[in-house]
Amino acid sequence: MSMTSSVGRDERTVAVENAGHRWAYTFVSFALLIDVAYRGVFRHEAAWDLLALVFVGGTVITIHQIRQKVWARGHTRGAVLTGLLGAVIAVIVAVAAMVWVRAVNGG
C-alpha cells in the first residue's frame, strides 16, 4: 500500500466537511451583513442585493433540511425567535443611525 492512497469517506469525514461548510457559510453571511451595514451607514448606499444573498442562502438551507427531514420543532421556534430578535435589533440600529446622522448634520 502506498502512502498516496486516499482514505475512504466515512461518517467522521462527512461530519468534518459539513462542519467546515457551516463555518464558511456563517463567516460569509456575517461578512455580507457587516458589508450591508457599512454601506448603509457610511456610504449611504442600499445594498439590498447583498442582503438578499444572505436571506436566500438561509432559505435554501432551511428548505434542504426540511426536505431531508432533519428540521426539528425546536428549529422552527429558534428560527422564529432569531428572526424576531434580528428585526428588533435592526429597528434599534436604524433608529440609532438616524438619530446619529441628524445630530451630526445639525438637523
What are the main properties of this structure?
0% strand; mainly alpha; 107 residues; 2 domains; single chain; elongated
How would you describe the overall organization of this protein?
It is built from three helices and no strands. The protein has 107 residues and is mostly helical. The protein folds into two domains: 10-71; 72-107. Helix 1 (11-42) runs antiparallel to helix 2. The longest helix is centred in the C-terminal third of the chain and has 33 residues, at 73-105. The protein starts with 10 loop residues before the first helix and ends with a helix.
Strand pairing plus helix content: what structural class? Answer: mainly alpha
- Output the radius of gyration: 20 Å
Strand content: under 5%
The unreliable regions are none
Question: What's the order of the H and E elements?
Answer: HHH
Distance between the termini: 76 Å
Mind describing the biggest β-sheet?
A: none
Count of helical stretches: 3
Tell the overall outline: elongated
Mean pLDDT: 85
